[in-house]
Fold:
Amino acid sequence: MAKTGTIVELSDWELVQRCQQGQVSAFQELVSRHYQKVFVVVQGIVNHREDAMDIVQDTFLRVYRKISGFKGDSSFYTWVYRIAVNLAIDFKRQKKRAPMELAERGEGYDEPVEDPDRIGSDPGRDLQRKEIERRLLAAIADLTPDHKAVIVLRAIEGLSYKEISRLLGCSEGTVMSRLHYARKRLLEKLDSVI
Amino acid sequence: MMSCGEIKDSLGAWLDQELDATAAAQVRAHLEGCAACLKEKERLEFLDAALKRVLESRSAGVAFESIWGAVERSIRKPAPWYQRLWDRIDIGLSPLRPAWVLSVAAVLSLGAFFLVRYLPEWSARNSFTFVESLDAHGANVALFRDSGSRTTVIWLFEPPEDQDEVSEEAPAASTGF
Amino acid sequence: MRFLKKRLLLVPAFSLAPWFFGAWLDAGEVAQQVELRIGSILASNQSTDFDPRLAKLKNQLKVFKYQSYKLIKEDHQQAGWNADANFEIPGGRSLVVAPQGRQNDQLSLKVRLLEGEKPLLDTTVRLKEGSNLLLGGPPHEGGVLILSISASAK
Structure:
């Protein structure tokens, strides 16, 4: 990577160093690189779009405040994810919103985006797919924040058990058992449709 | 030789490529000859694919500006002094909250220990004397505590002058018991 | 992270150690002497004087509604466990105090107030080291006697 190149060509670590020197533009680039993935993970845990956006904003604000202390012991994205996941887990523990409550307030789950190529191609299969997704979302909502975190990080990010354990501050064995438990619970809820 | 139950328990880790070589080989060999475990593996693969699809599709379409706008406004604004103080002391150990609680409790416990042990006057001011037994040998006695000054008092009352027990030889008022 | 977690978890273990050590120390102190202090205070309405030597007890003495307080005698003695310490109290009275034991920073004392040979009061109390018990009521010289009883283990 060119050290004197434009910001978009710099590595995360080089951008962090520029942030530490006070360059807000470097931080903006870091946010633009990672916000989408952070949002996906956070929303997977909190299950609410507006809350997820607030948490993502809070995450990057904390990242900015603490960036002077970031020594590069882990990768930047691992560090950001750690903050984001912890905020999301804390949020879920504190709020404990029931899915029914959200629906009654009109804030419901975000409906899965329809794949335009598939709409109308096979109504029976579409119905089954929608039912699976509906049950899956309900089943995820029933998981504890800790179980949600591991399933989301594995399913979306494909992180290894080691990376997940570092992120969550637990052992690899704990990650394995939480994943096993979460998958088992989710499969139970999908029993009659798959 | 792993049983079907053990294989099914290991399938998730096998699909995640987290098993060691020996265990992975055992799972692979078992799947070649067990329809039930193979079906379970397919269910897990289906689940993982559905999870990824569902979670990613729900998160589509978040505009960068909706995130960056709020973040930029906050970082341009100078943080209040208490926020700067917290940022210094907060070392981001929130996953270790139980350990934090334990550690704070431990420090408080240590402080309380030294206070109680080495500042008895302080601790004495904060504790009542406990009266386990009281016998006034027939006389009227009162036990009372004042919470304000943390004082315990045992008060002996003079018996009435017409009390039968008062001896004729006893002085009129000075003792009266 | 795990290493740090283990280190943090060691902190509670180390900080609980003093309590166990303290309990061990307590156990070891059974054989030691107890210092007993008895203050004989005359409370009356004959004047409005407050003896400056009673400054530490001022808040406690406010519980009573007398106008003047005077320290007329102060004694201290050392006694072993279950041994009697005899104190002369004004007005021909005496106080016998016998330390019984120690439990959780509290000293257990048996206290007997006598007038001549006649027991007026028997009580067993538990008080924290440095704290006191007030025993009052016996009339004396136009007022009443209030005895302040305190103890500490040496």
